[in-house]
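Q: I'm writing up a methods section and want to include an example of the input and output format. Could you take the sequence below and give the corresponding predicted structure tokens, formatted cleanly so I can copy it straight into the document?
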Amino acid sequence: MIKTLVISLPMLICIFWSVLLLLDWWEQRTRAKAQMLVFMVVASLLYGCHFIFFNHLYGWMPATDTIYCMANLSVFPLYYLYIKEVTDEQKRKHWQVTLLIPALLAGMATGTLYLFMNTQEDQLFIEKFLYQGTTDGLSGLAMTQAIVHICVKIIFALQIPPILVKGIQKIKRYDQMVETNYADTDLRKMYMAKSILVLFIVTSVISFTANIIGKEYFDTTPWLVLIPAATFLTLLFLLGYAGHRQNFTIQCLMMENTCDIELPTSKEDSPEEAQEEVKEEGVTEAATDTNETTEAEQGDCIERLRKNIIGAIETERLFLQQDLKINDISKLLHTNRDYIYKAINIRMGVSFSEYINRLRVDYAAQLMAKNPKMPTNEVAFRSGFSSLASFYRNFKAYKDHPPLTYKKESTPQD
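A: Here is the clean output for your methods example:
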């Protein structure tokens, strides 16, 4: 009974999130929600097949094994496509469908072989290969089916590293774009991205190992099924929760901005290279001026822009405005937001988000020093933070202590 419950939990979690994501999609009708819904539905099928396998429901095996082979090769590509929908400003391209071709071919090959295999061959293949992990005694179509299943395992192992690497790159670039455009990033960045990626890597290793060992080993050693089941359950719950909460995407950012942001595309892009880009573009207060300027003049313009930004944000305390955007600053200073980005990121060496939130945290620390009895939530909102969670996270990041601990240590003792 306990084994059956444990085995069914990943499937039930997937079904639960599928229903909620369907409701999300019905309300919002975004491609990102639709992609996450497809991922969860396919994951539900995958773990439904797991449930049938570990409960030895032989009559269902030809159909569910076919679905399993196809779903097994689909889940990682489908989650990568979801990441692209959230993070990639480029429109969907037809080549992306090719990521699912191996899964479709595996499903077609497995299903066709089961269709032409007789009952005896089905039983022999299921008992020998699926449950015992051996090809002894297999021949003809049953042996061909075993070869197809081995190929599925190899393809599954090969697809994980590139999808993981590309997914991490896209999430990092997207989060960088959010930090460049917004002071309040909590509901815009990919929710729990770092935690999910760490768990995703761990799950990938477990999936890879379990795929090589084979499901049959876990069937003969029942307690071992708890390890992958608990890991997959945790990952699937977090993925579903993050997908449910993720309402902001790159498309929202692009709609809010009138022109694209040009960002460094890798860590290798040095400040000196970015500075050269600024010089080449000839950033001036009059962005439409087409006259050539010297390097010194260009540098002076950037420096004047930096001082104007400091004057507007620090002197006038514009950082206290909740949900401050880089567009707000560009409109105030009547200049292009790309130039604001370059003045802050290149000259000041910080992102827009870090610059604003450091000022907010310093202001909050001053408030607490002057008004020790002021409630924490009032300190947070008066400092420009739109939520207590954002206040606590940023305060700890820039002061190395939570607000209450910092207040206690900085308040003079009687």
